[in-house]
């Protein structure tokens, strides 16, 4: 991507990329509170209803890595635009669905489009912003969309379902998607690409896509045979990458300490934090008796505090203390919030809200620092696949956390019996303790693996030959 954007044009391009990314992120949660209405309207069985969520997660998680690599080969702008168009069209089909099978198929298509669009966004941002301070600020904006998207989705899902119908949880994507497409064509500059002649590892793509899809499905549905198959495919993928002439995921990336450490920390961090959101939504509805809309509103302070931390503080703290220190300190605040929640007894304002505020502040500082670490030392030619990798580890962490915490809470509740409300609360308190355990492991791993200082920006890769560059087009603010 061209690196000498005027400030206004570059800022508008960042806004478009982050708006599209936010739309994709919140789509994974916006439908959650609408599931009972969808089941009643389309006649889903309880087991079949889970596929409204699982179909999206399987496609999205499974295709992030290859989507990032395609961005490096075909151009990240092209892949972003194609994915955004597919996501928007699939949202229309989902909203119009009158049959359970059509809805599940359209959710899978949404996942494909979402993977193509979101896998390359972080790589586009770090290429657009080579200056360390500006890059940290831009990553803070992007990280806000990632961290707050799920909470915003719960709020929007509750409001739309209660005020209109479940169909609008999908229709809401149409104006956002169309506007983002039109603006992206105008303001997101074409980027240089290596071209398919550089090689696409088709076998490696099939192996890793199958491994991640099976893994997400197995964790979400507790099908352990599928998990074993996923492990075998993943091992075969690693062997393939070691031998392939043009690997899908160059193993040299894992020799970069920050890349390896950041991706491992991401799995543990997201397992604790996304799993916590799932558990808290259940606690608010099943223990405190809130309806879908009030449950969404109860999460509203979280994105607000995350916005203050990630947009107003994260870049300054990172410039002053370094990303590693900011990451570990932010995770410490999240752990403190989770520990407070292990003592929750029934009041939102005294027991739930204060920990949410503490966790939002910690997450808003930690996530931009971690995103920056994951991309800081990556050569520009590999920015797409590195972006797809960090997004993939996010999805794996979310699947692990949600499955583990739901199982822990359910098992604890079943073992207690007695008063149903108190048994549920005890199960959720235990789940919060397990969430804190994930975050403690993330802090320990980050302290051990991540270097105390990491370069803020990698040197740009040599320019691709002119024949491989997309034709230049005008962008807003440019002649």
TrEMBL record:
Matches recorded under PANTHER family: BLR6921 PROTEIN, MAJOR FACILITATOR SUPERFAMILY MULTIDRUG TRANSPORTER MFSC
Subcellular location: Cell membrane
Keyword annotations of the record: Cell membrane, Membrane, Transmembrane, Transmembrane helix, Transport
Organism whose genome encodes this protein: Amycolatopsis eburnea
SUPFAM superfamilies: MFS general substrate transporter
GO cellular component, as recorded: plasma membrane
Protein name: DHA2 family efflux MFS transporter permease subunit
Keyword check for Repeat: no
GO molecular function: transmembrane transporter activity
């Amino acid at each position: 991507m061209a690196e000498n954007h005027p400030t206004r044009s570059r800022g508008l391009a960042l806004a478009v990329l982050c708006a599209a990314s936010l739309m994709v992120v919140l789509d994974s949660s916006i439908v959650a509170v609408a599931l009972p209405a969808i089941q009643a309207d389309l006649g889903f069985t309880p087991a079949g209803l889970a596929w409204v969520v699982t179909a999206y997660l399987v496609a999205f998680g499974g295709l992030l890595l290859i989507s990032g690599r395609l961005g490096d080969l075909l151009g990240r702008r092209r892949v972003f635009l194609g994915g955004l168009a597919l996501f928007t069209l699939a949202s229309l089909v989902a909203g119009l669905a009158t049959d359970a099978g059509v809805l599940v198929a359209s959710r899978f298509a949404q996942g494909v489009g979402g993977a193509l669009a979101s896998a390359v966004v972080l790589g586009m941002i770090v290429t657009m912003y080579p200056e360390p301070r500006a890059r940290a600020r831009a990553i803070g904006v992007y990280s806000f969309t990632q961290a707050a998207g799920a909470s915003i989705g719960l709020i929007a899902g509750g409001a739309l379902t209660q005020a209109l119908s479940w169909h609008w949880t999908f229709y809401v994507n149409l104006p956002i998607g169309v506007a983002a497409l039109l603006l992206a064509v105008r303001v997101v500059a074409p980027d240089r690409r290596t071209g398919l002649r550089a090689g696409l590892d088709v076998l490696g793509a099939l192996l890793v896509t199958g491994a991640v899809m099976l893994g997400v499905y197995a964790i979400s549905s507790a099908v352990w045979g599928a998990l074993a198959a996923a492990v075998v495919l993943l091992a075969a993928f690693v062997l393939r990458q070691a031998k392939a002439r043009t690997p899908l995921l160059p193993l040299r990336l894992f020799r970069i300490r920050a890349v390896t450490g950041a991706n491992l920390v991401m799995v543990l961090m997201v397992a604790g934090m996304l799993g916590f959101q799932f558990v808290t939504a259940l606690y608010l509805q099943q223990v405190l008796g809130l309806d879908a809309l009030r449950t969404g509103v109860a999460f509203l302070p979280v994105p607000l505090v995350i916005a203050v931390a990630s947009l107003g503080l994260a870049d300054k703290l990172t410039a002053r203390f370094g990303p590693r220190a900011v990451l570990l300190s932010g995770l410490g605040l999240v752990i403190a919030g989770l520990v407070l929640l292990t003592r929750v007894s029934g009041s939102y304002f005294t027991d739930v809200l204060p920990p949410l505020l503490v966790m939002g502040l910690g997450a808003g500082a930690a996530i931009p620092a971690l995103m920056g670490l994951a991309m800081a030392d990556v050569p520009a030619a590999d920015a797409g696949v590195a972006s797809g990798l960090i997004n993939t580890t996010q999805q794996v962490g979310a699947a692990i956390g949600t499955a583990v915490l739901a199982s822990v809470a359910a098992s604890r509740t079943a073992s207690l019996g007695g008063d149903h409300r108190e048994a549920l609360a005890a199960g959720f308190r235990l789940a919060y303790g397990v969430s804190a355990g994930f975050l403690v492991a993330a802090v320990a791993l980050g302290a051990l693996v991540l270097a105390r200082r990491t370069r803020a920006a990698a040197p740009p890769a040599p320019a691709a030959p002119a024949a491989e560059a997309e034709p230049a087009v005008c962008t807003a603010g440019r002649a």
